[in-house]
Every structure is written in structure tokens, then in C-alpha cells.
Amino acid sequence: MCLALPARVIDIDPSRHHGTVDMGGVRKQVSLALLDHVDVGDHVIVHVGYALTRLDEDEAQATLALFARMADEAQADKP
Do the beta carbons of residue 54 and residue 38 sit within 8 Å? Predict the structure, then answer.
């Protein structure tokens, strides 16, 4: 199973091929080479170190809210 996560771009290097993203407080360097144009503040889907596509703000927030709800439910199921 593969999992791609939404992340907010917080920094882009001058070559625009790599950037730093924030994933719920975790910062990670990712390749932006697969996308034509990304700006700081954009949300992207990240999988194995590559930004695959851009998301609009509403879609990113809805996805993050779903992940948070799933995590809360998993915690509630633990004995």
C-alpha cells in the first residue's frame, strides 16, 4: 500500500527543484522536479520524497482533517 500525504511548501531553493514542506509540524526536503510551478504556501501531495501534484487549500484541509479523524478513532480503539 502506498500513502501520499498533503504538505504545505514553506521554502523553495533557488533552482526550484527542491523545497521544504511542512507535514503537520514535521519538515522535510522534497523534490519539486515533477511539477511545473510551485510557490511557497502551496499545498502539494508528497510521496517518497517527491511532490506529485498541487492541491487547493480546501482540498488539503479536508484531507488533513480526515487523517486527524482517523488517528483519533484509532487512538479511541486502543485498550
Answer: yes
**Residue 56 belongs to domain with CATH number:** 2.30.30.140
Record the pTM: 0.82
**Residue 22, C-beta contacts closer than 8 angstroms, at least 6 positions apart:** 7, 8, 10
For 55, the grid coordinates are: 492541491
How many domains, in total, are found in the chain? 1
Block residue for cell numbers 521554502: 11
Who's near 41: CB < 8 A, 6+ residues apart?
8, 9
**Residue 22 banded pLDDT, cuts 50, 70, 90:** very high
